[in-house]
Amino acid sequence: MVIPYKDQKAAKKEQVAEMFDNISPRYDLLNRILSLGIDKGWRKKAVKLLKKENPQTLLDIATGTGDFAIEGLKSGASKIIGVDISEGMLQVGKEKIKKLGLEGKIELKKGDSENLEFKDNTFDAITVAFGVRNFENLEKGLAEMHRVIKTGGTVVILEFSNPQTFPFKNIYNFYFRHILPFVGKVISKDKSAYTYLPESVNAFPDGKNFLNILEKTGFKSLQCIPLTFGISSIYLGKK
Fold it and tell me: By the 8 A CB rule, do 224 and 178 touch?
């Protein structure tokens, strides 16, 4: 199992929470710099696909600073709840939502994706951006998502993947393994956080493998849509 702090004995879940608490003040800045702003377009495309389903209630898991929850309003949802295990990230997100005047539409709260507090069949849709690879138990987290989404509801997962085509694969790997950790360390002051990122992406069962796990946990009508030469992918599924 890939963990952020290899010298600690704490569980992955606790380490991930600590890591995001540590980098939360500079997380949004780092995201824009390290992704060259491309991540905004990925979120927009994912929400555009969700909009066709016309969800009214939306749960954004691993919401972080709330970017995907905010973008999620464009799906037509009238109520969005975002959950995350990092209090630091949530505080940044709450300030962002307050400044945008969206407090009546988006609620951010602390929550464990593998032990959601919601009743069965609560939400029309669930979104996750760059969060499922951080689950301590991937299948348990996906099973929880399946439990709280309504029958016929849609799940939209945006996650990094590993490009397969030459020469982009080689360029991407060099950037991800050398440039990104260096810049991340300098700006965030947390060396482990941006070493963990490429390690966790490399270990994640992307593409067809992830679709198989989604199917195993009960989802159907599955799709995988690669983005930007395969840097990331959108996964769609139904309950």
Answer: no
In the β-sheet with 220-227, what is the strand arrangement from edge to edge? Answer: 106-110, 79-84, 57-61, 123-129, 149-160, 232-238, 220-227
In order along its 239 residues, the chain shows pLDDT tens digits of 999 999 999 999 999 999 999 999 999 988 888 888 899 999 999 999 999 999 999 999 999 999 999 999 999 999 999 999 999 999 999 999 999 999 999 999 999 999 999 999 999 999 999 999 999 999 999 999 999 999 999 999 999 999 988 898 999 899 988 998 998 889 899 989 999 999 999 999 999 999 999 999 999 999 999 999 999 999 999 99
Tell me which fold the domain 12-238 belongs to: Rossmann fold (3.40.50)
For residue 4, the one-letter residue type is P
d(CA 84, CA 157): 15
Q: Is residue 202 exposed (0-12), middle (13-18) or buried (19+ Cβ within 10 Å)?
A: middle
Q: Mark 4-36 as b/e (b = at least 16 C-beta within 10 Å).
A: bbeeeeeebbbbbbbbbbbbbebbbebbeebbe
Q: Helix or strand or coil: residue 49? A: helix
Domain ranges, ordered by start, for the chain: 12-238
DSSP class of residue 101 equals T
d(CA 97, CA 95): 5
Nearest to 163 by CA among 209, 230, 224: 230
Which amino acid is residue 164, in one-letter code? Q
In angstroms, the CA 60 to CA 227 distance is: 20
Q: What does pTM read for this prediction?
A: 0.96
